[in-house]
Amino acid sequence: MPTLSSRNRINEKSILYDTHIIQHVSLTSRIHKILLNKPINFKHCAGQYIKLYIENGSYKFFSIANAPHSEQIELHIQSPYLISDPNPFLSNLLACNRIRISKSLGNCILPKVLKRAIIFIAGGCGFAQIKSLLEDLSMRANVIFPVYLYWGVQSYSDAYYLKELRDLMRNNHWFHCDIILNSSSNNEKYVRIGYPTDFVFKDFPDLSNFDLYVSGPEIMVKTAYHLANKHRVCLEHFYTDCDIHKLKNE
Fold first, then answer.
1. pLDDT digits (tens, 9 = 90+) for 50-87
2. Which one, of 47, 35, 57, lies nearest residue 104 by Cα?
3. Is residue 173, in this structure, part of any structural domain at all?
4. 110 in a domain, yes or no?
5. Is 109 among the domain residues?
6. Cα(101)–Cα(20) distance, rounded to whole angstroms?
7. Percent of the chain with pLDDT over 90
8. Phi, psi of 228 (to 5 degrees)
9. Which tens digits make up the pLDDT trace of 156-208?
10. Measuring CA to CA, which of 15, 63, 147, 177 is 20 to 30 A from 202?
11. Cα torsion at 111, 112, 116, 118 (round to 10°)?
12. Together in a domain, 193 and 219
């Protein structure tokens, strides 16, 4: 999911599609899953995102959280941590009679044939983009390279897709997953504490044979990009919807 200026350069004259909400599910106390009807002729690849407009004229960008085979468009929306600070965009979205979305955007997609191992780095709801990529991989019969996910969350309860990830690991020898907590509690003694970037580059000092896909908060993407350069990741193997040229110059 892009978080830097790349999202501000979208062509405003791009075709728009009308859609509506099919389902709203609270995945946690702060994270919401929205299912939109997929408009006729709307196409997307796993890993892409959309620009979503609501009736009051406001808009936001959201990663599409499901692979293209679905008949819906799945979005994950996170509310602020403070209960007293509600998410006005979500409230307005749920009250909308008319929703419009852009065509699918972004180039953070998988090759048709995998030729390298993959590391996914996700922060919070940045996992939505990674979820669609994992769904794409799970439907392929020819995955022979290992795939690693490092997902950073505030607390274990924020890992809202944990059961499905465990099932994916159990059913696919190529998949490995680490949940990284920002802080610990008495009930969470046996998980890694810190940030996902800390452990990726600790576990893999040499990443020259990996493709990296990074999705999440801006500061995490920046950190991952600069550390990747130090660990022998070529620019062509670092995938994010953020503005690479801006990252390169910061």
1. 999 998 888 999 999 999 999 999 999 988 755 545 67
2. 47
3. yes
4. no
5. no
6. 10
7. 61
8. -60, -40
9. 889 999 999 999 999 999 999 999 998 766 555 557 889 999 999 999 999 99
10. 63
11. 60
12. yes
